[in-house]
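Aim 2 progress update. The chain analyzed this quarter is reproduced below.
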Amino acid sequence: MSDSPTPRGDKRQRTRRALIAATLAVVEERGFAGASLEEIARRAGMSRGAIYSNFADRSELLMAAVTTQGMTLDRDFSRPLPLKAQLRRFAENLVDQLPIAAGTGKLVVDYQLYAMTQPELRERLGEVYARSFAVIAGRFETQYGPALGGRAHTLALAVQALAMGFVWQFMLTPREVTPAAVVEAFEALADGMASHRPPGPAD
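Predicted structure tokens:
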């Protein structure tokens, strides 16, 4: 009985995983600046052509490798919950992910610092964040509409900034970043947005 053929998609995913693993290994040894495509391809046992068949360029490969590391936050704000409960739920998920973020924090920080020195990579990273903010803002707008104090995009940006701030602070002073403090901060953000209503036509 012959083995069933391997789906083409599975082979592509294995190739991508192998290239990402090789990228992370090379970055660990040589840093982002020293991670050449030639060395990554050699480490993966492939050609540069295999890289370009799976990733547009070096920047996309580096970004794909970094995004496999670190925490996985649930940014689905479409659940039918009051804003305070919505942000409390997000905060609790963030608390659970903080130890994971601390374990891979240096890699992510190094990548962000490197991206700041590379205009193309920085622009691409900015585009990724912009798309994320647009999606989250859309969910906030759909959920809360006129009842939301301030712009939905501002809230999306604040959620991201507050979360990343806690990640960085946790890496520096983990004992200070208690679960209660994280939840309290996000609840305060929800209260602040709820208490500052946009002025109505009669105001």
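The radius of gyration is 21 Å. The chain has two domains: 8-67, 83-195. These observations will guide the mutagenesis experiments scheduled for the next reporting period.
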